[in-house]
């Protein structure tokens, strides 16, 4: 990995334009830009007013955004435990194949353990 000093932080409301651009980047990567119907206002309402999901921003040591992850809780009635579903994990194209995604993923697991979650569910697309 070319830069070992990565910063992972929870997104704040002033990051909404960045979040929108990163989500749009994922839609383009998945060849589904036409499915990107969310607006900045819709995302702001969901993430910061309703708090339905958490967004993590991955940055290098000079605060350049590298990627993001988005997760939200789910509940299992059988175990009565709250789990996490990882909806998105995205690394910008120019930072791929350098180990950032792997380091980000395992750091997310550490963050979720600290938050008290025991299970992460994720469906990775081809």
Keywords:
alpha+beta, 29% strand, 126 residues, five-stranded mixed sheet, globular
The whole-number mean of residue pLDDT values reads 92
Global outline? globular
Strand arrangement within the widest β-sheet reads 1-2-3-4-5
Largest sheet: 5 strands, mixed
Residues in β-strands, percent = 25-35%
Helix content: 25-40%
- Computed CA radius of gyration, to the nearest angstrom: 15 Å
Outline the low-pLDDT stretches. none
What's the total helix number?
3
The counted number of beta strands is 5
Distance between the termini: 23 Å
Class based on secondary structure composition and strand pairing: alpha+beta
Structure description:
By secondary structure, this protein is α+β, with helices and mostly antiparallel strands. About 30% of the residues lie in helices and about 30% in strands. The chain is built from 3 helices and 5 strands; from the N terminus they run βααβββαβ. It has a 5-stranded mixed sheet, with helices on both faces. α3 links the parallel β4 and β5. The longest helix has 15 residues. About 15% of the residues are buried. The model has no long low-confidence stretch (mean pLDDT about 90).
